[in-house]
Amino acid sequence: MYVLAIDGGGTKTSAVICDELGNIYAKVVTTRSNPTAMGVQYFKSTIHDLLQNLQQQNPQVFAAIDSCFAGMAGVKELEAEGLVEVILRQYIHKSAAVVVDNDAIIALYAGTLGKEGIVQIAGTGAITMGYNREQHFHRVGGWGYLFDDEGSGYDLGVQVLKAIFQSYDGRGDQTTLTDVVLRYFSMENVPQLIECIYGEEHPRTVIAPLSKYVFDVADKGDRVAIQIIEDACTKYYVAIKACYSHMTWEEGDIPVVLVGGVFNNKAYFVSKLQQFAQADEIPLQFMVPILQPIGGAVIAAFKQKNVQLGSDFVESFTKNYDQE
Q: Do both 219 and 264 map to the same domain?
């Protein structure tokens, strides 16, 4: 059986044709495909180009696709699932199962391998989503960088800048974040940072990259940086707990998959979040993904056809994907 899996995001889009053994017959990695961040014609063109590329790589296997799952950022917000499905149907055999859904599902499945759970995403933005056995979906947070997206890379960057300016004014403790960020922007003093932040680029583009320095400085014992991370942990837990409490779950531990660039520093988060859950006696089990999100999309595509993947699928798919 062959499936087509698509992971569409705000930075890049990945797609593969794969079988249940983890063999890959075509692969494309291309530009972003978030319809909220691009014109509709450019969005449609990106999907068309991606599908044509896959088809050209392996026409015979492409024609035999049994199931397609596209997990795409922004499609729910713009109700663009139908638009994407119409494009997919122009290429894929009419008997194939086709599902277009939020990219949070494939991020979840990259950790749970198709099982129910909660996914906490913290990249440039942040959002919490739960998906249970009844296929009920619940969202918490992620309402935009202007007033939400707590714990995102952007939010952490904002906290870094707040700490720097408060320290400069004498309103907050001294922090080595000041020296690190001044070097990053090649500036000599704190007031000069204003022209860097309030420039022509979008604030998220400028501020989100500062989040990585929180961890570098925290590793060296900076109390301000450590507090920023601990505050982010609290924000995640509040959102995860709210998501959990709004849904019906089966008996046993509920996996919570931590996805996104912020969680590359998992040592700061997994044990702390687990402590919060244990203190509240909530059966949550925190983890990082086993697969890349595109692997979660493959699992979702097979799940549409009720295909149970073997225990060696993860290793096989990861090896083949990395080699392509």
A: yes
